[in-house]
Amino acid sequence: MITMLSDFGDRDIYVGVMKGVIAQINPQVRVVDLTHQIPPQNIAAARFCLMNAYPYFSDGTVHLAVVDPGVGGTRRAIAVQFANGYLVGPDNGTFSGLLSQSPAIAVVELTNPDYWRTPQPSKTFHGRDIFAPVAAHLAKGVPFQELGNPINSATLVQMDISGCILTETGIAGSIQYIDHFGNLVTNIPGSYVQGKTWYVKAAGLTITGSETYSDVEVGEAIALVESHGWVEIAINRGNAHSQLQIHLGDTVELAF
Asked: Would you say the pTM of this structure is higher than 0.70?
């Protein structure tokens, strides 16, 4: 299986073209779209989505992720082997969240043009000319080591997303992702609040922790642990991002 994640949207042909390239090489492979609605060039959002999606796929899955503002520049094109499968895409931090949970076993820079669509790839569409064909060949059984030159996993680009820290009064964290509904996902694991009475402070607001959106009135803010396992701030039938004016990277404090 191959999963696909990108910021290409569904208006243009880019996603379809990549699927066509995959089908030419490996017509039997199953392709699952994780999302193509990552905000343009938002590597942090790509990192979060991939990190939270990969556990739901079988071992051996090839995860193809193309959010690539540095395409055609000096950033490396890579493939990564990890315990549950493979990653294919640019070395720009997209994979750093997943690899913090399941470390790399091996990494190669994609330097072997035998597995590209063309030995002269476009400077602006490596998704079509390098990443999609490599993912298709990998899913077809091409040995990982044949894709290119080995590189040290310690040299991979890391996203600069600070972890949450324990304080005298609770836990300090930040907003790491904003979803389609405007829900504000923190970097504080929900395990910290199990069985406790808690609340969140953000942007001068104090927001009570609860279990479901319907625990508060329509239009009221709530903090809860979402299905992805992180503490988030939401508004029942509203958009917390626009209504509370809390943004990506803003500080959040959880207290008991």
From this structure: yes
